[in-house]
Structure formats: C-alpha cells, structure tokens
C-alpha cells in the first residue's frame, strides 16, 4: 500500500504565500478597476431625461435646478437622494428616477393638480386632488374659480371631501362656493362667490349635506315671496332643526330670540318679514 507523505513545511509556506499574493493582486486589480469606473468621465451623468405631464415646470428648468445637487456617476449616484431633489422642486408631487446606461438618468414626474387654496389668504399652500397640502408659487395660479379651504391641521382631505359634496348640491342655485371653513369645534361655514355667508352647522357630513339640500330645495320659494332671486342672498343660517334663517339684500329677517351659535342648536326657524 502506497503511503502519501505530508508536504514539507517550506512547500506549505510557499503555497500559502502564492495564494496570498494571488488574492492581493486580484484585490488590487479590482480596486483599480473600481477606481477607473468611478473616475472615468464616460460614466459621469451627462444626460437627464425628464418625462411626465408638466404644467408648472419644464424639462430644461428642472435639469438646470436639480443637476447641481446630484453627486456621483452612473454607478455611484444615490437614486433616493436624486428622487428627493426632484420632489423638492415646486409643484412636483412625485418623482421616479432610474439609471440608463451608460451615463443617463430617466426621471418620470407627476405634478400636483391643485384643487383649492389652503389656509389664510397670506399663506402659500394649496390642496391637490388627493387632499394633500403642498407649497406652491401662488403667483403662478389664477385666483378666479379656485376656492379656498380652511380647517385644523390634518383635515385637508376631509374639507376637500365636503367641498366636493357641497359644490354640486349648490349648483342649482348658480351659487359657487368661494370659501369653505371647518372650525376647531367641528362647525362648517361657507362663503359664496356673491359674498353671501352661510353657517352650515356641525354633525356628520351627511347631516350637513341634508341641511344644504333642504336649503336649496326651498330657497326659490322663500325668495319669491320677497320678489327676490337666489343671488340676492346675503347670509343664511342652517343650524336649525326644522328650517333656516335668511338675510336677503333689501330684506331683513328677524325672530323673537336667537340662541347663541353652537354645533347642534335646537331653536325654531326664523320668521321673515319686510
């Protein structure tokens, strides 16, 4: 039987040394290749392709504004940081950034679709179609036809939802909502395009909508008694269980005693007279 003798110590050392040298050389080659890839101008980001429906931005200005903040090349650029840089541009809601070999980025943008102003007149915030609040260049927006919504922090989606329900409910009167406000106590108030103020009261959205619908159904009959039309409305208080109080241009509405405003008052409807 043939017996295999162990390799001498010096042979083992030579084998280990050769392996270490081989691994070291491979690591140096890899490092040199990585350095070459990182430094070679062929892989520098030289083109940014911008896609998407854009109304308030354009591809040229986006590239000019965002490119200086992008660092790295095709392999090393941080796509998350690049996406955030594009999303910081006014009116940009969402950006998707992808690499495109060998030196390009492809960016798909989605802008905010503004549905209303948000907050006080002095602010620069708007509400988009998702009910999200965003900062906008107000000077770029035409004020006519866009309502203003207000409410406590975090209620923009709720206020937009109620506006979308009330706007068509008031359409038969040809009176558009110019402002809709939700108070801290949960009471709703609307200002119409003709300047009329409406107290809508509190409760659920369905309860508020029912009060408005009742108001719309009966307003023409009430105003006709005073030879007026709906556009003569100056103010309305719908916070009553069985009716509402009105003030028309040239006509005063009074009642014996009006209770102080509260979310769910229970007084009887106002009696109208010249």
Automatic annotation (TrEMBL):
<feature type="region of interest" description="Disordered">
    <location>
        <begin position="252"/>
        <end position="274"/>
    </location>
</feature>
<dbReference type="GO" id="GO:0090529">
    <property type="term" value="P:cell septum assembly"/>
</dbReference>
<feature type="compositionally biased region" description="Pro residues">
    <location>
        <begin position="258"/>
        <end position="268"/>
    </location>
</feature>
<dbReference type="InterPro" id="IPR045335">
    <property type="entry name" value="FtsQ_C_sf"/>
</dbReference>
<dbReference type="GO" id="GO:0005886">
    <property type="term" value="C:plasma membrane"/>
</dbReference>
<dbReference type="InterPro" id="IPR005548">
    <property type="entry name" value="Cell_div_FtsQ/DivIB_C"/>
</dbReference>
<dbReference type="InterPro" id="IPR034746">
    <property type="entry name" value="POTRA"/>
</dbReference>
<protein>
    <recommendedName>
        <fullName>Cell division protein FtsQ</fullName>
    </recommendedName>
</protein>
<dbReference type="Pfam" id="PF08478">
    <property type="entry name" value="POTRA_1"/>
</dbReference>
<keyword id="KW-1003">Cell membrane</keyword>
<keyword id="KW-1133">Transmembrane helix</keyword>
<keyword id="KW-0132">Cell division</keyword>
<comment type="similarity">
    <text>Belongs to the FtsQ/DivIB family. FtsQ subfamily.</text>
</comment>
<dbReference type="InterPro" id="IPR026579">
    <property type="entry name" value="FtsQ"/>
</dbReference>
<feature type="transmembrane region" description="Helical">
    <location>
        <begin position="20"/>
        <end position="38"/>
    </location>
</feature>
<keyword id="KW-0812">Transmembrane</keyword>
<keyword id="KW-0131">Cell cycle</keyword>
<keyword id="KW-0997">Cell inner membrane</keyword>
<dbReference type="GO" id="GO:0032153">
    <property type="term" value="C:cell division site"/>
</dbReference>
<comment type="function">
    <text>Essential cell division protein. May link together the upstream cell division proteins, which are predominantly cytoplasmic, with the downstream cell division proteins, which are predominantly periplasmic. May control correct divisome assembly.</text>
</comment>
<comment type="subunit">
    <text>Part of a complex composed of FtsB, FtsL and FtsQ.</text>
</comment>
<dbReference type="GO" id="GO:0043093">
    <property type="term" value="P:FtsZ-dependent cytokinesis"/>
</dbReference>
<keyword id="KW-0472">Membrane</keyword>
<dbReference type="Pfam" id="PF03799">
    <property type="entry name" value="FtsQ_DivIB_C"/>
</dbReference>
<dbReference type="InterPro" id="IPR013685">
    <property type="entry name" value="POTRA_FtsQ_type"/>
</dbReference>
<feature type="domain" description="POTRA">
    <location>
        <begin position="43"/>
        <end position="116"/>
    </location>
</feature>
């Amino acid at each position: 039987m043939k017996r295999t003798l162990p390799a001498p110590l010096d042979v083992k050392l030579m084998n280990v040394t050769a392996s270490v040298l081989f691994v070291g050389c491979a690591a140096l080659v890899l490092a040199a290749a990585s350095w070459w890839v990182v430094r070679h101008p062929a892989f520098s980001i030289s083109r940014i392709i911008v896609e998407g429906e854009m109304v308030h931005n354009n591809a040229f200005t986006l590239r000019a504004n965002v490119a200086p903040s992008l660092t790295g090349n095709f392999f090393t650029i941080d796509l998350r940081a690049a996406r955030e840089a594009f999303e910081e541009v006014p009116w940009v809601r969402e950006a998707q950034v992808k690499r495109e070999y060998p030196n390009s980025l492809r960016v798909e943008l989605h802008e905010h679709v503004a549905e209303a102003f948000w907050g006080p007149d002095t602010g620069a915030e708007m509400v988009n179609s998702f009910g999200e609040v965003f900062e906008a260049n107000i000077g770029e927006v035409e004020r006519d036809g866009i309502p203003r919504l207000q409410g406590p922090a975090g209620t923009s989606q709720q206020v937009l939802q109620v506006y979308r329900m009330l706007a068509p409910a008031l359409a038969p009167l040809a009176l558009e909502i110019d402002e809709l406000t939700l108070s801290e106590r949960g009471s709703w108030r609307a200002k119409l395009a003709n300047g009329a103020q409406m107290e809508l009261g509190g409760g659920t959205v369905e309860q508020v909508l029912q009060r408005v619908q009742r108001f719309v159904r009966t307003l023409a009959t009430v105003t006709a008694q005073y030879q007026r039309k709906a556009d003569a409305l100056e103010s309305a208080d719908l916070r009553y269980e069985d009716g509402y109080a009105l003030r028309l241009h040239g006509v005063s509405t009074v009642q014996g005693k009006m209770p102080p405003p509260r979310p769910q008052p229970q007084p009887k409807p106002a009696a109208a007279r010249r």
